[in-house]
């Protein structure tokens, strides 16, 4: 399949009073046309920063893209001047944010907020833009869109606002939709509806979706492929099947074990002990070493090279290395 | 909306009545009378004068007479300037005071917003520090000090602007500058603070994600939300500009309402005190009312009319 977006060795750092935080430390992944790629990981692992970097929304200063490439349509977005960035944002790559309660401007009508996106990117008459916006609201399941256009965000519920955010993001028919925790602020029933909407829209428009989340339940429902991030790096990538049924990185396994299961009565919830490393001074080796039950000496010194387990499945873990297989005995045990 | 406005109008009338009543009794409880002078007046003449102005009647009767004339918008005659009525004084003085006040308010709002916005956009940069230095100076320097300084420098030393009176646009520059600097500084600081807050809001990030230009983001998305706190102080700022005109009019020898107001108090010229007080209060109350209306226009979440179905 066609690669629509290639992120190569992306590095993002933020300058703070305490020093430089290396939020993203060399992230590499491809996004295929029409697929949903989920980036999962715990808070602070750099998944949101990665998505903001793709949108060119890293606040600078204090943040900056310290290295790497983001290749979209044969162009490296990281070297794009701000003015050209604006032509990409909202038109080719769109974004949906976590909290629909605050992501819409309270003083502008919903219709205006949708229309201004089209007018910014396309040469189009206002009446036509309006008609397009109404169509889009129809598509995302807003009843009576004609009259809803004239209303303000506070007159909508949380789920409805997220639908409006989706309509706003899709109005210029972007090729990539980045959804940063799109369902986290919603309750579970609404969450299911929004995920259903994502799938529906993808079927109709063929848009590629990058889904940023920490919720493995969401991932299981919609993702085609999954990238697991930890401490600013992608530690394991694979298809949904591979990640859920054949996880190879100890962190991925830990994540899966810490999800409550309703289908197994006696299954105990196993948390991952410890906490993620300090990204002011990230470890040179595998960042998961201190929390890993099977950590070896080499783990704390050298970052694991990539091991290709299948066409789609790659993992960064020394346990997968030919030389480590027989030695795979835990040396550090966390009680 | 109409019912809201009617309700507010009623409340405004009550407020005005309270102000009138309080001022009336307070001013009459202050010792002294319009005829307390160095030279002794003939007793018969004094009696006649007091009878003419109803000053010999009990206070509640005087109050009744005054209120009666007030509802017909007749502010009565001036006691001290016997040929003058308070209405005539207002007609002469108010247009000039209003002109000064209005130009000042517009200048303060425009320049204050401008300074505040560029300071917020260049947060912690040179422009920010410069704008805030100007603002702090503007707040710290009393307008009468600034006025004399401006006259000394721009009128006396360099002779760019005329030093006093109110005739041409050139005459208006110095008094307006002196009067507008304080309110401008307050508006600038408020605008900066609320702009900085608004610019970190999620919906600003959403607007950026749409690919909008920085100009559109600032003016369409940020400014409107940042204006709310600024609008809040506009009512009281208008009041401070009004009272500020007293001093500035005196310094620049502007024939506005201010001098009547100040003179009338030391003269115990009751009708003039009452007339000017009522007039100023009315303006202030109307300003506050306009501010509330502006709220509803700026922020759709603030509903001025009754909720439907109640």
UniProtKB/TrEMBL annotation, chain A:
Entry keywords, A to Z: ATP-binding, Cell membrane, Membrane, Nucleotide-binding, Transport
Record-annotated ABC transporter domain positions: 5-256
Gene3D superfamilies, sorted: P-loop containing nucleotide triphosphate hydrolases
Pfam families: ABC_tran, oligo_HPY
Keyword set includes Glycoprotein: no
Domain of life (superkingdom): Bacteria
SMART domains associated with the record: AAA
Compartment(s) where it occurs, according to its Swiss-Prot or TrEMBL record: Cell membrane
UniProt record, GO biological process: peptide transport
Leader peptide range in chain numbering: none
GO CC entries: plasma membrane
Bilayer topology annotation: Peripheral membrane protein
Entry annotated with the keyword Nucleotide-binding: yes
Entry GO MF terms: ATP binding; ATP hydrolysis activity
InterPro entries xrefs: AAA+_ATPase (IPR003593), ABC_Ni/Peptide_Import (IPR050388), ABC_transporter-like_ATP-bd (IPR003439), ABC_transporter-like_CS (IPR017871), Oligopep_ABC_C (IPR013563), P-loop_NTPase (IPR027417)
PANTHER family noted in UniProt: DIPEPTIDE TRANSPORT ATP-BINDING PROTEIN DPPD (PTHR43297:SF2), OLIGOPEPTIDE TRANSPORT ATP-BINDING PROTEIN APPD (PTHR43297)
Family: Belongs to the ABC transporter superfamily.
Protein name: ABC transporter ATP-binding protein
Annotated source species: Peribacillus psychrosaccharolyticus (Bacillus psychrosaccharolyticus)
From TrEMBL, chain B:
Domain ABC transmembrane type-1: 94-295
Keywords: Cell membrane, Membrane, Transmembrane, Transmembrane helix, Transport
Iron-sulfur recorded as keyword: no
Membrane-crossing segments per the record: 9-27, 100-122, 129-152, 172-191, 226-248, 278-298
Topology term for the membrane: Multi-pass membrane protein
InterPro entries to which the protein is assigned, alphabetical: BPD_transp_1_N, MetI-like, MetI-like_sf
GO biological process: transmembrane transport
Cellular compartments annotated: Cell membrane
Gene Ontology cellular component terms for the protein in this record: plasma membrane
Family, as annotated: Belongs to the binding-protein-dependent transport system permease family.
PANTHER family: DIPEPTIDE TRANSPORT SYSTEM PERMEASE PROTEIN DPPB-RELATED
Name the UniProt record assigns to this protein: ABC transporter permease
Gene source species: Peribacillus psychrosaccharolyticus (Bacillus psychrosaccharolyticus)
């Amino acid at each position: 399949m066609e690669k629509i977006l290639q992120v190569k060795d992306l590095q993002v750092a933020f300058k703070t009073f305490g020093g430089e935080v290396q939020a993203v430390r060399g992230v590499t992944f491809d996004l295929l046309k029409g697929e949903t790629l989920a980036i999962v990981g715990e808070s602070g692992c750099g998944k949101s920063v990665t998505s903001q970097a793709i949108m060119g929304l890293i606040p600078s200063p204090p943040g900056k893209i310290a290295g790497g490439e983001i290749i979209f349509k044969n162009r490296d977005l990281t070297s794009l001047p701000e003015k050209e960035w604006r032509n990409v944002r909202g038109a080719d790559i769109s974004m949906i944010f976590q909290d629909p309660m605050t992501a819409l401007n309270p003083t502008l009508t919903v219709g205006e907020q949708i229309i201004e996106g089209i007018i910014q990117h396309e040469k189009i008459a206002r009446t036509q833009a309006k008609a397009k916006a109404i169509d889009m609201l129809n598509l995302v399941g807003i009843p009576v869109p004609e009259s809803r256009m004239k209303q303000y965000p506070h007159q909508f519920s949380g789920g409805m606002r997220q639908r409006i955010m989706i309509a706003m993001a899709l109005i210029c028919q972007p090729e990539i939709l980045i959804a940063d925790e799109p369902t986290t602020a919603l309750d579970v029933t609404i969450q299911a509806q929004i995920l259903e909407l994502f799938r529906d829209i993808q079927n109709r428009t063929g848009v590629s979706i990058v889904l940023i989340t920490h919720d493995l339940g969401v991932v299981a429902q919609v993702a085609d492929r999954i990238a697991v991030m930890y401490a600013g790096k992608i530690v394991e990538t694979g298809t949904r099947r591979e990640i859920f049924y054949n996880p190879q990185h100890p962190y991925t396994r830990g994540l899966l074990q810490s999800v409550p299961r309703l289908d197994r009565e006696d299954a105990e919830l196993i948390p991952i002990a410890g906490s993620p490393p300090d990204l002011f001074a990230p470890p040179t080796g595998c960042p998961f070493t201190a929390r890993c039950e099977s950590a070896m000496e080499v783990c704390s010194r050298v970052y694991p090279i990539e091991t290709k387990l299948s066409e789609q499945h790659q993992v960064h873990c020394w346990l997968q290395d030919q030389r480590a297989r027989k030695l795979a005995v835990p040396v550090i045990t966390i009680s | 909306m109409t019912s809201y406005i009617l309700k507010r109008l009623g409340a405004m009338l009550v407020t005005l009545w309270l102000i009138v009543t309080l001022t009336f009794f307070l001013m009459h409880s202050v010792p002294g009378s319009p005829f307390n002078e160095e030279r002794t007046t003939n007793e018969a003449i004094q009696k006649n004068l007091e009878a003419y102005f109803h000053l010999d009647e009990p206070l509640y009767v005087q109050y009744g007479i005054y209120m009666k004339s007030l509802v017909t918008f007749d502010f009565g005659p001036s006691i001290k300037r016997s040929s003058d009525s308070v209405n005539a004084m207002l007609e002469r003085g108010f247009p000039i005071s209003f002109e000064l006040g209005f130009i000042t308010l517009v200048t303060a709002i425009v320049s204050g917003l401008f300074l505040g916005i560029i300071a917020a956009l260049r947060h912690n940069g040179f422009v920010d520090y410069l704008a805030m230095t100007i603002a702090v100076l503007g707040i710290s320097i009393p307008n009468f000090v600034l006025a004399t300084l401006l006259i000394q420098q721009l009128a006396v030393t360099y002779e760019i602007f005329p030093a006093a009176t109110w005739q041409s646009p050139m005459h208006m520059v110095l008094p307006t500058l002196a009067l507008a600097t304080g309110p401008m500084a307050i508006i600038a600081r408020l605008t900066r603070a609320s702009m900085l807050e608004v610019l970190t809001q999620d919906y600003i990030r959403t607007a950026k994600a749409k690919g909008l230009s920085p100009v559109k983001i600032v003016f369409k998305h940020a400014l409107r939300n940042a204006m709310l706190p600024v609008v809040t102080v506009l009512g009281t700022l208008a009041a401070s500009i009004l009272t500020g005109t007293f001093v500035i009019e005196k310094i620049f020898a502007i024939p506005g309402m201010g001098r009547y107001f100040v003179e009338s108090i030391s003269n115990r010229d009751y009708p003039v005190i009452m007339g000017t007080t009522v007039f100023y209060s009315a303006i202030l109350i109307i300003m506050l009312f306009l501010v509330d209306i502006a709220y509803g226009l700026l922020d759709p979440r603030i509903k001025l009319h009754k909720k439907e179905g109640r």
